[in-house]
């Protein structure tokens, strides 16, 4: 008694056999013949009847479907890219500012301690920076204040806040002669 095989079972078997070979066979007739021979040997033990015409037509339909879906994915991807309009070099990143109530109270206490010790310059009054210092010292206010004071003294010693104003650029003319598109403000 011969088994009746459904089209989907046959196609999944062919797919498992190697889609890569079938892709190449669309342009290489010699390879197509080798695949047919391998298919015959593979299906020799199975009892089902499918004509050669059905095999060829199902394979060609399968390959056409794959080719059109790949083409569609490519064109849709290109459309998506062309619709993106950006005024800057980098895409905008939105960061949601989620604050924990306990951390916020500790940061406010840290801010008040810095203000009391006159250690909070206007450029450094940032919630996340203060939270980073507190986390580094496991929320110990005294250690965080000491670390903050050391940070400010280091910045003053090495001129981190005034580097743009104090920087002397002696090679400016030489660089401009080699790279005229580079401008320094």
Feature tags:
CRAL/TRIO_N_dom; Helicase, Ruva Protein, domain 3; CRAL/TRIO N-terminal domain-containing protein; mainly alpha; 0% strand
Describe the model.
There is one protein chain. The protein is elongated. 65% of the residues lie in helices and 0% in strands. It starts with 6 loop residues before the first helix and ends in a 7-residue tail after the last helix. The mean pLDDT is 76. The protein folds into two domains: 7-83; 101-166, Orthogonal Bundle (Helicase, Ruva Protein, domain 3). With 185 residues, it is mainly alpha-helical. It has helices at 7-25, 29-42, 52-83, 101-116, 127-136, 141-158, 163-166, 172-178.
Instruction: Work out the helix count.
Output: 8
Distance between the termini: 88 Å
Overall 3D geometry? elongated
- Please give the radius of gyration in angstroms: 35 Å
Low-confidence stretches: none
Q: What's the number of extended β-strand segments?
A: 0
